[in-house]
């Protein structure tokens, strides 16, 4: 459910009273398990929102429909499980017959007869990776040397990482053998996980032409084992600035590091190689200071100085984000539908002069609007993801409204990163002391500090 951002947005709109009825093709498209389907339908029903399932001819308006929905949802879940098992079975049969699944990787391509063919130029890069590893270099060092030499990956990019090199060094397919089912899906509702022996694996020997000799491959595995440190597995922690701090040099995302107790954010591209990006590390305290200064400058320039108005107006701003986004979306959508309507009129009207010319002009307008919508949708997704920050900030401001704080008094709360994130959607680091802030309403603020003076 976490990955269904559009679905979650639709449900939120329905619970806010913006949608009266939801029409869905079938129960299986609404939710893949009974519990999710029933919980969502009940929440919607409490708000007077009806869900119509076309294939099953169900309208969630009475208890009888809910009973039928329970039965059919269980059937849909079972159907999903059956399909998943059939797919798994078909793969297993292929593996048993010595037919592995081909995925494009550096050094190989597949011809029309499904034979795996060696690509000589790419094979040279693979051999060099193994050679450098035997010479004592680790994957990170090999990646940096590949960046300096301008070697291209499968996707034609040159931003090699230690992980990309490690994947090559650990891939047994370069020896001509293929190990099938390295990963598997635990059940039809689960995610792909590494196969630790829970499921049968199939090793197909000498399936295709080798790029690396088996002896060399085994020696490299021993080298990698020597340097591998076992790290405790667990869910990756997310921070307030994760995914929202970007590098002003290359556009890469900033990654959080702690060195001697100091939290810094470094460009992911720069960590791969200085040749790819010149941005140095940025202290988190500087990012926070930039956001606080930007916030103070933004609201000092507005008529928000009166204590009785400040918290109220900030709350109104945050509450208006969703409606403003929806309004912008509806406006673009309306323009698109008008163009489509005009196109239909031209197509259906036999008396139209220069039909091809008119259709071409309308098509160009439609393409432009669709591109505009695609560009804005990325921004709208960010706003949707930040709704939790805004809700928490509104709760804080509700408490502050009772005591009537001023902008100066509010500054104490701005040291909370989560509180600031309700307003700041993205931070672009132009340098370690210069930042561009993108606000929820699309405005942009440039904040610069004096080198060696502030934030040190």
TrEMBL record:
Per UniProt, residues of the Resolvase/invertase-type recombinase catalytic domain are 1-98
Pinpoint the Recombinase domain residues: 105-230
Q: Which Gene3D superfamilies match?
A: Putative Large Serine Recombinase, Chain B, Domain 2, Resolvase, N-terminal catalytic domain
Task: Give TM segment ranges.
Answer: none
Q: Which controlled-vocabulary keywords does the entry list?
A: Coiled coil, DNA recombination, DNA-binding
Give the top-rank taxon of the lineage listed in the UniProt record for this protein.
Bacteria
As recorded in UniProt, coiled-coil segments are: 352-417
GO molecular function term, any single one: DNA binding
Q: Which PANTHER family match?
A: DNA-INVERTASE FROM LAMBDOID PROPHAGE, SERINE RECOMBINASE PINE-RELATED
Q: What is this protein called?
A: Recombinase family protein
């Amino acid at each position: 459910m976490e990955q269904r951002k559009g679905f979650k947005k639709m449900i939120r709109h329905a619970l806010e009273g913006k949608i009266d009825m939801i029409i869905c093709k079938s129960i299986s498209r609404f939710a893949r398990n009974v519990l999710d389907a029933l919980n969502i339908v009940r929440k919607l029903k409490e708000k007077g929102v009806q869900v119509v399932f076309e294939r099953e001819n169900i309208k969630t308006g009475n208890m009888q429909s809910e009973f039928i929905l329970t039965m059919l949802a269980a059937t849909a879940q079972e159907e999903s499980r059956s399909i998943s098992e059939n797919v798994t079975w078909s793969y297993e049969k292929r593996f048993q017959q010595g037919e592995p699944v081909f995925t494009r990787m550096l050094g190989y391509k597949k011809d029309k007869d499904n034979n795996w063919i060696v690509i000589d130029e790419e094979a040279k890069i693979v051999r060099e990776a193994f050679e450098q590893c035997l010479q004592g270099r680790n994957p990170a060092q090999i990646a940096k040397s590949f960046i300096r030499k301008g070697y291209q990956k499968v996707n034609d990019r040159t931003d090699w990482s230690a992980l990309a090199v490690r994947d090559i060094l650990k891939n047994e397919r370069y020896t001509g053998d293929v190990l099938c089912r390295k990963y598997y899906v635990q059940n039809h509702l689960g995610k792909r996980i590494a196969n630790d022996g829970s499921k049968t694996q199939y090793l197909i020997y000498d399936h295709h032409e080798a790029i690396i000799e088996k002896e060399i491959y085994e020696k490299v595995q021993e080298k990698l084992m020597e340097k591998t440190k076992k790290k405790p597995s667990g869910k990756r922690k997310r921070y307030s600035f994760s995914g929202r701090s970007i590098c002003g040099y290359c556009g890469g995302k900033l990654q959080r590091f702690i060195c001697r107790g100091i939290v810094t954010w470094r460009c992911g591209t720069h960590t791969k190689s200085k040749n790819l990006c010149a941005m140095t590390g940025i202290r988190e305290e500087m990012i926070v200071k930039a956001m606080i200064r930007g916030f103070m400058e933004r609201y000092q320039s507005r008529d928000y100085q009166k204590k009785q108005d400040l918290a109220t107006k900030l709350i109104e701003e945050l509450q208006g984000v969703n409606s403003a986004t929806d309004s912008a979306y509806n406006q673009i959508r309306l323009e698109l539908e008008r163009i489509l309507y005009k196109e239909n009129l031209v197509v259906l009207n036999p008396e139209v002069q220069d039909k091809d010319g008119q259709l071409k002009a309308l098509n160009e307008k439609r393409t432009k609007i669709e591109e505009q919508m695609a560009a804005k949708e990325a921004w709208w997704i960010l706003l949707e993801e930040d709704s939790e920050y805004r809700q928490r900030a509104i709760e804080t401001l509700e408490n502050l409204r009772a005591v009537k704080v001023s902008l100066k008094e509010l500054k104490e709360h701005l040291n909370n990163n989560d509180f600031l994130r309700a307003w700041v959607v993205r931070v672009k680091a132009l340098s370690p002391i210069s930042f561009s802030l993108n606000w929820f309403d699309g405005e942009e603020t440039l904040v610069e500090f004096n080198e060696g003076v502030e934030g040190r």
